[in-house]
Design goal:
- By secondary structure, the protein is mainly alpha-helical.
- Among the domains are: 46 residues, no CATH class; 95 residues, Cytochrome Bc1 Complex, Chain D, domain 2, CATH 1.10.760.10.
- It is built from twelve helices and four strands.
- A two-stranded antiparallel ribbon has the order 1-2.
- Helix 3 crosses helix 5, helix 9 packs across helix 12 and helix 11 packs across helix 12.
- The chain is elongated and about 100 Å long.
Length: 294
């Protein structure tokens, strides 16, 4: 066998070696194929998109070359009286430089009406504009028949309500759900109140005043609240904010413990009556414990 390998041509020897190794390779278990990950899928998507764009560019280039080569023949065809006024004839004219299909038949044509030095011209509406207008009329009748007469689809109000119901299903029912009130108790420890005071001085004082007397924002030391004075209402207001009132959301800027600390500090200021306190805003909550940002 070895003597035959020595005498055999290189190609024949390689083929015999592969055939002899075939059973051995067949016994080797193939590794399971890994599913393509997101990166591979995106790479394939962009590859296919680029290929499609390249094919379209080739088609456009070929079309332009054909038009250039056939331009003399197209011009002779366009000059035939039976062809020039047809729609296909206008398409041919557009290919050889006659833009009537786009600009219209008439442009600055005098109608013979003149008054006080002012002449009246006739300018044809561009065909693309007229065809677009006709398309809107067809669309309006189709829309009316499908939605209003046939009742097959949802109108704007019904579609909005459906989307809101679907969105409500996606809202998590946990502490990050703005529609769910927490059940925290106010912190009373000196360390927590000191931390809350520091957070308040840094983030809240510019709008509510150094003593929570109210500046741009409302007074936080009285019994009147715009969005609820109970600790969990205030916690919610601080965390999610009130965009329409200029109250920013501190979620993501302060941790949950920090929000509870500053809310508890504000509660401790109830009834402190600071100098220059702003007039009451909102509704009075008699007997409720105080809280922050209204």
């Amino acid at each position: 066998m070895l003597a035959w390998f020595r005498k055999a041509p290189p190609a024949a020897g390689l083929l015999a070696l592969l055939l002899s190794a075939g059973p051995v390779l067949a016994q080797t278990p193939a590794a399971p194929a890994k599913p393509a990950g997101p990166d591979a899928q995106m790479l394939l998507f962009w590859f296919l998109l680029s290929t499609l764009a390249l094919v379209l560019m080739v088609y456009v280039l070929v079309f332009v070359l054909i038009v250039v080569k056939l331009k003399p023949l197209l011009r002779r065809l366009y000059e035939m009286p039976t062809v020039q006024e047809t729609w296909s004839g206008k398409v041919i004219g557009l290919l050889i430089g006659d833009a009537r299909l786009v600009t219209g038949e008439y442009k600055d044509e005098l109608l013979g009406h003149e008054y006080d030095g002012i002449s009246e011209f006739d300018n044809d509406l561009p065909p693309w504009w007229k065809y677009g207008f006709y398309a809107t009329i067809v669309f309006a009748f189709a829309y009316m028949g499908y939605y209003h007469l046939g009742g097959n689809g949802q109108l704007q109000t019904a579609e909005y309500e459906t989307e809101m119901q679907q969105a409500a299903l996606l809202v998590s029912a946990d502490a990050d759900d703005p529609n769910k009130l927490t059940t925290y108790a106010a912190l009373t420890g000196p360390a927590d109140l000191s931390a809350g005071k520091s957070i308040y001085a840094t983030n809240c004082a510019p709008c509510h005043g150094a003593s929570a007397e109210g500046k741009v924002g409302p007074n936080l030391t009285d019994d009147y609240w715009l969005h609820g004075g109970e600790i969990n209402h205030v916690y919610k207001t601080i965390k999610f904010g009130v965009t329409s009132k200029g109250m920013v959301a501190w979620k993501g800027k302060l941790a949950g413990k920090q929000i509870l600390q500053v809310a508890s500090y504000i509660e401790s200021l109830r009834g402190s009556n600071p100098a220059g306190a702003k007039e009451p805003q909102g509704e009075k909550e008699a007997g409720s414990k105080p809280l922050a940002a209204k």
